[in-house]
Give the backbone structure.
Amino acid sequence: MAKKKKQPKKTNEERILDDNKIEYTEMQFDWLSGKKIALEQVAKAGLKEESILKTIVCLGSDGPKDYLVVCLPIVGEIDLKMVARELGKKQIHLADNKKLIKITGYIHGANTPIGIHAFKEFPIYFDKRVKDFSEVCVSAGKVGRSVRLSLSQLVELVDGQFIKVSDKEV
């Protein structure tokens, strides 16, 4: 008798999507083996690199708990001065990677706007350069595990806003 392939246990973020009746597709990208290998996997899946979003946790200038999240293409760059101007803040800094798990509950590489919004309620911002994508991929709360879903549903779920995060092309 053939054994059934064991399905990976759902992450909290996938359960949040299920609870909100948001359709998604589970994706696996091996970022631990390097960006080049992961981007080859993205291409094999028929996806555009620009639709794979990274989640950057930042600290604003309005106090020690002024955290915010910026989601932008994995192949894109963030201009912290531009983000500060867009949000009317003096400065924006990257959050300390060593303290990410304490700040967000996630290790570096697993931060996700879905969980951070649900559990920490930090404001979530999306790069204007992805506004025209119908679907994007974001982390599912574990390194290498992502969910592909409707951008508009994601933005609505996390009360996201679009801002300009860089002048560089992606």
Notes: The two ends are 50 Å apart (CA to CA). The mean pLDDT is 92. The chain has one domain: 23-163.
